[in-house]
Structure formats: C-alpha cells, structure tokens
Amino acid sequence: MSRNRVxxxxxxxPTAIPEQPSRRRFLQSAAAAATVGVxxxxxxxxxxxxxxxxxxxxxxxxxxxxxxRPVALNVNGRAYxxxxxxxxxxxxxxxxxxxxxxxxxxxxxxxxxxxxxMVEGRRINSCLTLAVMHDGESITTxxxxxxxxxxxxxxxAFIEHDxxxxxxxxxxxxxxxxxxxxxxxxxxxxxxxxxxxTRPSQLSDDEIRERMSGNICRCxxxxxxxxxxxxxxxxxxxxx
Length: 240
What we know:
alpha+beta; Ubiquitin-like (UB roll)
C-alpha cells in the first residue's frame, strides 16, 4: 500500500490508496483463471470411453472361413462334384473348378450379362449366385448349346448375321437368346407386350430388344444380334 503525501505541518491524516496492479500481474492472474476453468474439461476428455454395449469384446475370437464342401452340379449333361467353399460364385465354380472357360467374367456385378447361363432352363447371371445354391441342379453353358458337334440354330444365326465383333459378350448373348426363344414359345410376356395377360402374338424387334436388354455388347453389334435372334426364331438360320 502507498500513502498520499501531505504538506509538512498539516494536521490531515494521510489516506491509503490501493496500489495499481502491474500488467504482468494482470496477465498472470488471467492465465491462472483460464487454466482452472479448462482443467475439468481436460480431465473429462482424458477419461477412457465406456465400451459400447453392442461392440464385441476385444478378446472375441474371429471365425475361420467355412471349409469346402462337395457340391454336385450337372453341367451340360455331365455330372461334376466340386469341393467348394460356400462363398464361391457359380461363375467361379464353372471357370476355376470345372474348367469351363466359355462363360465370361465381365463386370462381376450382374450388369453386363457376359456370364449368363441357364439353370433348369432359366437364364441367370452366374456372378450373382452361389454355387452351393444350385446343388443338384442342371446347368447349361455356352459349351452345351451345340449337340454332337452340330451348332444350335441360335449359334448358326449369330454366325450368319455377324452378330458379334470381339466375341467377349457372345457366350452370354447366345445363352440369353436361347432362353429368350424358350420363354417366348412358352407364352412368357415382357414389359413391351401389348397385353401381358395374354400370350405374345409375335416376336417383334421391340420384343427382342427388351428381352435381350440385360446383355451389353460394348462393340455395338445390337442390330445384328436382333437380326440373328429373329432369324433363329423364324427358322431361317442356315446350316453352319
């Protein structure tokens, strides 16, 4: 504390006045107050988070993959018994285990149709289904379309109408076209059929395009593919 100066001989008592804090003292006090205010938050952040009740414990044992199991497939009239892990797709089973490389892996996600095969007469994308799901079923790939070395009408029509270029999508196109003709002959309608409650009257070009729309040809041979399917349907495919 400091005192005011008074003139000599004066009867006035000196009064005490507070000492003005220095700038350094003020900054030190402010920093100390800030540290005290932040400390609880820092303590809360350093506390270990409670484990989620839905998360597995750290010591949870990782499951080993399922062991291979025998899967019986009848492919193109031949019986196969393949030792397959349950996650193997039908496409990989045909190519990597049965050695039938005709079926192609294009997009591997069911968008291009290059892997189309027929299972029990119904066309499917073999990349989107597991082989174990078809245990005991009959499967037809492009290798099984010809009979005793004689090409099928669809195969002959594709050759005569030059319905392919690079040929990568052709196996899927051939299987899809073969199933298409069977579907039409059995009376199955499509989204472009005039009345889906009745049997389609004719296999028009619009019907062919719609029914083949799941098979992509990156070379753009669509006009020739439609012509080939039309010829095979009309029985106009000549001898190979």
